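Batch manifest, entry 17 of 40.
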Amino acid sequence: MTEKLQHVTRILQTLKEEAKERKLSPTERQKTLETLKVYGRDPRNCDPLFTTEGIETLGKHGFDINADDVPSAREALRCLANALLVVPKTRQMFVDAGLEYKAAEKLQGALVDDQFLLARILFLITYDTTYNTGDADLMKLVEDKKIEASIDEAIAGHAARCSSSSKSPAPSAMDDMALEEILKLMFNFSHYVKEAKNGLFIKSVPNMFTILQHKDLSPFPLRPPITNLINALLNIDLTKCQDSDFPPEMRLISTEKLIEVLDKSIDPQFTKLGAKTAENFDDHGKPLITLLHKVIQTADEGVVNKLKVRLLPSIDERNQPLGKGTTLPARLLQLTTSASTPNTRESISWLLFELSGNDAAEFINNIGYGYASGFLVTHNIPIPASSFDKNSGTRQVNPITGQTLDSEPPVDDPFEGMTQEEKEREAERLFVLFERLKKTGVVDIKNPVETAFHEGRFQELPDDEEEDSDDEVEGKGKGKQ
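Output type: structure tokens
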């Protein structure tokens, strides 16, 4: 038996006896639990800690006997959180001991430090336990211990701290950590509790958007807690939000913030060579695009119009082929064809299609046939012939590129400056190339010279030009002999 194992065994025995009869001072008890916490970070030679007896002993110190000793109870919770994290089998031991009900009860009105630990513990038991397999009733836990009310209260507290006046202290690092754990717990509970009535966590939606609005955005904001907020909102039925709690003007402001997150998540200098930016967005951007889908489906006309203005190309962008600039619509179009965005390019196309009223002709008019065709063909959406006749406002538009016709550069005549003989040689060369291509069988192609002949588009040369041309060819032939 190693020294560490011996020490862990002695500590657990001490804590077990302490649960029956108090002998240690609060300071000694806290220090003992703190030592066990440090040992428990590395599961090697800590076997007694990861047993049913070890978990139950820590449960007594975390939930029962230390009501008047908050520091010791908190250390016990840290030991439990570490154990459930590093040794998954302890999660079922925790559930078998009925400790999840005590954790849920303790979450009510918990301070931020305890909120962090309790939310993490409850989050972890949704994996590798009977709650995860469906053998245990998670909804019963939610209803019996009022977890929804506890989480709503916690979210409201975080929103109040985020939106408080500048004189109030800014949210601490522990505030952010606790918020992340609460949001992760909210996501899992709303995912597994499908039969929730009246919309689980619906009361938290306005406060969640309040938190989002007051978060400073980094150059690439798709990281916690922003990603946690987005993920948690995905599972909530936004249609059940009442205007009295979440008025239209607040929905518009919240949508603008989501667009700002999207804008900052795609490097403004992104081009088709910007693989790093594309990969970062592809790893984290799909939930944000999915949330914008949900917003469109539940939003009023004002919100939808705001999304159209910000995400669809404007008339000013049509001075060049769509997708060539650095605006947000241009960057989104670039991502729809990027090999570095297999997870998000389809979602972006669906989002733009929905903003086009799910109308194929309008979709082509908005983003150009070049970007729209692949999506439409993949999803067997018919392409109406009328889409090629559409205009953008009062200006004629190239339906393929989306560029206005009056902005397109003039096309030079490739035969300009060539003599008649040079034109004939070029035609003969093209004829030979098309014949070779046709013989390969790779593509079914008709020689354009042959087509022109059948359509009667050959031009008869005057006799003198033909004779002169023949003489030149004959002369060149004689010279070669």
